[in-house]
Write a structure and sequence with these properties.
Helix 3 crosses helix 5. Among the domains are: about 140 residues, Rossmann fold, CATH 3.40.50.980; about 120 residues, 2-Layer Sandwich (GMP Synthetase, Chain A, domain 3), CATH 3.30.300. Strands 5-4-17-16-18-19-20 form a 7-stranded mixed sheet, sandwiched between helices. A 5-stranded parallel sheet has the order 7-6-8-11-12, sandwiched between helices. The protein has a 4-stranded antiparallel sheet with strand order 24-25-26-27. Helix 10 links the parallel strand 16 and strand 17. It is an alpha/beta fold. It is built from 18 helices and 32 strands. The protein is globular. Bound molecules: coenzyme A (COA) and adenosine monophosphate (AMP). The site of coenzyme A has 25 residues, from strand 9 and helix 12. The site of adenosine monophosphate has 19 residues, from strand 21, strand 26 and strand 27.
Length: about 625
């Protein structure tokens, strides 16, 4: 079996396996020390190699016969605009943007924060950073100013790149106002902010700090790629943990490029020249890996879509894009498919388009639920492949390795471990569990290339969070089991992270925000099952005193606080005032019981419960 042999080789001889895969890339200096260990005991792939990720994604293709092939298709139903860039055009735009960054004082190793909507400048500036060895950190537009400020303080960028606005269906979101507010809050205030004025909104510029993007580009000179070491960081991407402080996942150039290239053939089964579309956002890891780096490193045409699955203008939007641009493989979150199915349950709109180009559908970001899977399979008649991954890994941990071997699909499973990922299911004490037993999913070290090697500026947090629970393993934070055929079933997070419309959010962080309201004595936020978005946060709030207060008003205020502090993306719209929270006698909130209760599942009331009436009150609400 092709998959089994490949997988075995990756586990038995990881260095030989990845050294071989690395040969597919055009290194300036190939790595000799394939897997090395640093002074903190952390392993790095290809640390001593030299390369440039932008060279691999653009210049290499320009020099090797793809100069006139389309590299990027920008498709924006919200602005009724489309634009295509060939590889040479994209290379030129990127090298000029890199020149602009240089003019703004950005050098190798410096950080640049990007707060941009889904426009070509987002892709161009990510690649421009890579070109000069700068480290980008893209912040998703749905995050509010305090979130952006936290990232400014943590990443300490030299420059911020932004645009005047994002467009949410037909609403103009003033991005610049959010950036200005973040500058006010942050302690670290970069001296330069480059602003792209979009035609939909012109914003005022802060004198002495803000620079007009178009203007700055005019005087910028093109710059060449700068060689970086394999272990030099390509980007920092912040993701939610269990506390209010997001974790800056650090991705290194060498391992990332190797994993991207390998995944395009082995998982996505696409060839250079094919059109590949990840309908995600550049603010998320899927956008980094499969809108920008993976398809371009592989020589594909990638699609950048500024729109929604529905309402831009209808539930046929995805099918229009597939048919018009001849997309071969589509990758998106199940929630997007659920949104489409809700509007068009019979799949009528698919019939309006010629979808014969589409060969595979990929889903990730949350579990592909069996009803959505069945609907997709029936509607499209192409393989529908779920795969499991995380910001931390940057690519799939378990997948149907379709480019290696077409494995039968089991609904509800993300299939088998991707080569390089040695997955084990452990119990609380770290003992390996048998098939069909659900436990904590851990990855035996070494991790394969592309996985994070630290949390930006906090190696101790990285070790504590991921490596110390089970020595010799990386803790994923997900729970699940293997069946007797070796198929992996992901059953959800085992921590306080929730997944809302494919977006990863921290209920701990929401609790911190709600708890800041002067009238709130204590609170709990949990994820509640939602038909469309997978999960939605719901809050339970105990007030300091109940005299002379209108509970509805407090609820409105805490909802507004979460929106102001975390952002619209948190989708925190439901909260209740309760007399007390269900807790154990030692004071631990019974979150698991709460979750089961609000989802209408069976639950056992723990014998350690302090006051059972607290549960009755909540039960009555659902
Ligand atoms: N900039 C500013 N605001 C944004 C934003 C952005 N880039 N993205 C989302 N928001 C806002 C939305 O406008 C919405 O605000 P509202 O509460 O005022 O309506 C809020 O954040 C929640 O957005 P979203 O989760 O996208 O919900 P939705 O109801 O607008 O759309 C779906 C629902 C399912 C259509 C949408 O979530 C979707 O397409 N999901 C795909 C997920 C995805 O790509 N995940 C990436 C991993 S693969
Ligand atoms: P993110 O880091 O935002 O990509 O979110 C990662 C989390 O999303 C994982 O830890 C899982 O909980 C969840 N997830 C991603 N893909 C899948 C999948 N295919 N099946 C189940 N859960 C998934």
């Amino acid at each position: 079996m092709a998959y089994k042999d490949e997988y075995r080789a990756s586990i038995d001889s990881p260095e030989a396996f990845w050294a071989d895969k690395a040969k597919q890339l055009d290194w300036y200096k190939p790595s000799k020390n394939i897997l090395s260990t640093d002074e903190h005991g952390i392993q790095h792939w290809f640390a001593d190699g030299e390369l440039n990720t932008c060279h691999l994604a653009l210049d290499f293709h320009v020099e090797n016969g793809r100069a006139d092939q389309t590299a990027l298709i920008y498709d924006s139903p919200v602005t009724s605009q489309q634009q295509k860039f060939t590889y040479i055009e994209l290379r030129d735009a990127v090298s000029q943007c890199a020149g602009m960054l240089r003019q703004c004082g950005v050098s190798k190793g410096d950080r640049v924060i990007l707060y941009l909507p889904m426009i070509p400048e987002a892709v161009i500036s990510m690649l421009a950073c890579a070109r000069i060895g700068a480290v980008h950190s893209v912040v998703f537009g749905g995050f509010a100013a305090p979130e952006l400020a936290q990232r400014l303080d943590d990443a300490t960028p030299v420059v911020v790149l932004t645009a005047s606005c994002g467009i949410e269906i037909n609403r103009i979101i003033d991005y610049k106002q959010i950036v200005d507010a973040a500058f006010d809050i942050a302690t670290h205030k970069p001296s330069v902010c480059v602003v792209l004025q979009r035609p939909q909104l012109t914003v005022p510029m802060a004198e002495g700090r803000d620079i007009d993007w178009e203007h700055a580009l005019e005087s910028a000179e093109s710059v060449d790629c700068v060689p970086v070491r394999g272990s030099d960081p390509l980007y920092i991407l912040y993701t939610s943990g269990t506390t209010g402080k997001p974790k800056g996942v650090v991705r290194e150039n060498g391992g990332h490029a190797v994993a991207m290239k390998y995944s395009m053939t082995s998982i996505y089964a696409v060839e250079p020249g094919d059109v590949y579309w990840a309908a995600s956002d550049v603010g998320w890891v899927v956008g980094h890996s499969y809108i920008v780096y993976g398809p371009l490193i592989h020589g594909c045409t990638t699609v950048l879509y500024e729109g929604k699955p529905v309402m831009t203008p209808d539930a046929g939007a995805f099918w229009r894009v597939i048919s018009q641009h001849r997309v071969k493989a589509l990758f998106t979150a199940p929630t997007a498919f659920r949104a489409i199915r809700k509007e068009d349950p019979e799949g009528q709109l698919t019939r309006k388009y010629d979808l014969s180009c589409l060969t595979t559908l990929f889903a990730a970001g949350e579990r592909l639920d069996p009803p959505t899977y069945e609907w997709l399979k029936e509607t499209f008649g192409v393989p529908v492949l779920d795969h499991w991954w995380q910001t931390e890994t940057g690519w799939a941990i378990a997948a149907n390795m379709y480019g290696l071997e077409k494995m039968p699909v089991k609904s509800g499973s993300s299939t088998m471990p991707v080569p390089g990922f040695n997955i084990e299911i452990l119990d609380e004490s770290g003992t390996q569990l048998d098939n069909n037993q659900q436990g904590f999913i851990a990855l035996k070290l070494p991790l394969p290339p592309s996985c994070l090697t630290t949390i930006w500026g906090d190696v101790d947090r990285f070790k504590h969070q991921y490596l110390e629970t089970y020595p010799g393993y990386f803790t994923t934070g997900d729970g699940g089991y293997f069946d007797d055929d070796g198929y992996l079933f992901i059953m959800g997070r085992v921590d306080d992270v929730i997944n809302v419309a494919g977006h990863r959010l921290s209920t701990g962080e929401m609790e911190e925000v709600v708890g800041r309201h002067p009238m709130v004595a204590e609170c709990a936020v949990i994820g509640r099952h939602d038909q469309l978005k997978g999960q939605l946060p719901v809050g339970f709030v105990v007030l300091k005193n109940t005299e002379d207060v209108a509970p509805d008003q407090i609820i409105e205020q805490v909802i507004a606080l979460v929106r102001e502090d975390i952002g619209a993306v948190a989708a925190f719209k439901e909260a209740f005032v309760v007399a007390r929270l269900p807790k154990t006698r030692s004071g631990k909130i019974l979150r698991k019981t709460l979750r089961a209760m609000v989802d209408g599942e069976n639950y056992v009331i723990p014998s350690t419960i302090e006051d059972p009436t607290a549960l009755d009150e909540i039960k009555a609400l659902f």
